[in-house]
Amino acid sequence: MFKKVLIANRSEIAVRIIKACQEIGIKTVAVYSEVDRRAPHVQLADESINLGEPTPSESYLNIPKIIENAQSVGAEAIHPGYGFLAENPDFAKACHDKGIKFIGPKPEIIRLMGDKIEAKKTMENADVPVIPGYHGEKQDIATLVKEGKKVGFPLLVKATAGGGGKGMRIVNSEDELEQSIESAKRESKSSFGNDSVFLEKYLDKPRHIEFQILADEHENVIHLFERECSIQRRHQKIIEETPSPVMTKKLREEMGKAAIAAAEAVGYTNAGTIEFMVDGNLNFYFMEMNTRLQVEHPITEATTGIDLAKWQLKIANGMELALKQKNITQRGHAVECRVYAEDPSNGFLPSIGVLKKVEPPRGPNIRNDMGIETNIEITPYYDPMLAKLVVSAENREESINKMIWALSNYVILGVTTNISFLKKVLEHEEFKKGNITTHFIDNYFEDRIIINKGLPLDAIIALAVYDSLHTRRQEVVRFKEADPHSPWKRVGRWRMGV
Ligand code: MV4
Q1: Pairing of β 47-52 and β 27-33
Q2: Which of the residues in the chain have pLDDT under 70?
Q3: What are the structural domains, with CATH classification, of the chain?
Q4: How many angstroms separate the alpha carbon of residue 207 from the centre of ligand 1?
Q5: CA of 367 to the centre of ligand 1 (A)
Q6: pLDDT tens, 385-424?
């Protein structure tokens, strides 16, 4: 096994990966920027390296700095987590060129999957269903307009280098087509430095359902079932669950087969995710492949008992998958909520400040993946996700109710969070019935959500102080009564103000 691994990331995912390494006996090296000096991932790691300025390009995105440091501390491998450098083929290649194992697939596969047109063509050739549309080489406006008319309306224009809604346009009729293509191209050019686009039929009642796969370096590929990720806000997932409420045994078998075919088509290795769109008639289509460990991986771990982060390390070290598809089973139901430092009553604006108190809910089958703790400062430099809360139970209804309980018992003071908003989504009748699409939040919620924010922070602190004093006084009284020699025995009813 590797003796030392560098984790090129921060927050909860860095913590998650460091723990996986430590369980196998691998020494860990954290990297951090100035503002993360005291962050949990730095405290937990065996060694840590200061990357300097907090700006991502200076720190967590700084390829030469990270690689030089990995070499100087003697790390044999780098785990990129998600985001930052996780799907950057140049980084994977740079690791490889310096003799450092990149924990993920080969650079060429990351590059291929980053090009959405090439990815779709590859999948089409492997008989994996893709969303009907135009994903050809020709990028002149006349060709795109002609092809768009063939696709029909409504359609979507999407950026070839994109993902996550950037450079995307909905086109409802022929007269909007040319303008939408041009503006999608402009946005793609400025966001990705590449103006290539493709066209897709706009699916009705779409759901985002993805399959987790694991592939070793000896041509074994397995899938670990699906995750339902339709609950998104501005193309950010906020609640994920498994199994999907629409999944049937037959559909799961078909989609699982397609997911494995997709991975095999490119000679994929390590952990990956095949994203599908499923329409209202349960037709499924390949959308894209994520070549990383995902934010929502814990719900798969909770229902299969398989540790994905540890398998990433074992696979990267050349180990063969001991797991056979027929032996992988799913038990119960799991839900994940992403807790963000943002204000639902103010357009979900990020909220910054020092965390005065962090006390997550605890209990059986409750998992908290966190990169925060009391006294940590939330700055504007990075993603405002604070933590992930994952619960599991026997079935969907129980795990939703458990999640509502857990969110109700989550204490974060110092910044505004989306916790009350998450609860409102889980309490929605249509959500409870499993009637969800990628447009659920847009359909049922406004951008400004009136939420009972509770008491102001000062009042909460005053109450907390009062409460702790009150508790101590009771303890003193109990102590007094238990011990006949207590000095309190001699002071009668007089007490200091404790
Ligand atoms: C779609 C779609 C419907 N049909 N593709 C792509 C990026 C992802 N974050 C959203 N995407 C979608 N792709 C086809 N063929 C619906 C979405 C979609 C969406 C589209 C427009 C406006 C808001 C949306 C929210 C979630 C998903």
Answers
A1: parallel
A2: 452-456, 470-498
A3: 4-103 (3.40.50.20), 132-201 (3.30.1490.20), 207-448 (3.30.470.20), 457-491 (no CATH)
A4: 9
A5: 30
A6: 999 999 999 999 999 999 999 999 999 999 999 999 999 9
